[in-house]
């Protein structure tokens, strides 16, 4: 197993949920994805450990941690790509809706203009007759 307390803490810290938290703060953070920084931390822990034989369980555990961290990083990257694509599609939908609403407003404006011309042409008013006498 793990030899010293420092090695145990390093391995534990590299496996902790806080280190895999999306956007966690650490000195090697590369923006919203902390996966690369976590991998550096794990590699630093690996280099500080001494491996006496290739089948050493400590080395196997550390390699498992590195694999898991890599998989987490890939999953975070895929999630970010999906969120970006979703936002692009949503922006396209909103643009389409805005164009449709603008067309409706233009059509209503044209209709009101036509009604105003017809009302003036025939001497009609949209106000009640009593209101016209007060002028």
Parts with pLDDT < 50 across at least 5 consecutive residues = 14-30
Query: Main sheet, how many strands, which sense, barrel?
Result: none
- Fraction of residues in β-strands: under 5%
Q: How much helix, percentage-wise, in residues?
A: over 70%
The average pLDDT value, as a whole number, equals: 74
**Looking at the structure, what is the overall shape?**
rod-shaped
Count helical runs.
4
Q: H/E element string? A: HHHH
Task: Please state the structural category.
Answer: mainly alpha
| Integer-rounded radius of gyration | 34 Å
Tally of strands: 0
Q: Distance between the terminal alpha carbons, to the nearest Å?
A: 98 Å
How would you describe this protein?
This protein has 135 residues and is mainly α. The protein is 71% helix and 0% strand. The radius of gyration is 34 Å and the shape is rod-shaped. It starts with a helix and ends with a helix. About 13% of the residues have low confidence.
Topology of this structure?
Blueprint lengths: L4 H11 L19 H14 L8 H66 L6 H5 L2
Helix pairs in contact: 1-2, 2-3
Quick recap:
By secondary structure, this protein is an all-alpha fold. 71% of the residues lie in helices and 0% in strands.
């Amino acid at each position: 197993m793990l030899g010293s307390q420092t090695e145990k803490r390093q391995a534990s810290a590299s496996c902790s949920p806080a280190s895999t938290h999306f956007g966690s703060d650490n000195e090697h953070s590369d923006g919203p994805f902390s996966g690369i920084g976590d991998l550096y931390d794990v590699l630093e822990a690996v280099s500080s450990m001494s491996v006496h034989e290739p089948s050493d369980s400590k080395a196997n555990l550390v390699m498992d941690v590195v694999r898991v961290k890599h998989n987490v990083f890939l999953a975070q990257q895929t999630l970010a790509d999906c969120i970006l694509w979703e936002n692009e599609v949503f922006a396209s939908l909103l643009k389409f809706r805005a164009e449709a609403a603008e067309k409706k407003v233009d059509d209503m404006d044209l209709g009101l203009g036509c009604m105003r011309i017809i009302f003036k042409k025939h001497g009609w008013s949209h106000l009640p007759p009593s209101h016209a006498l007060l002028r």
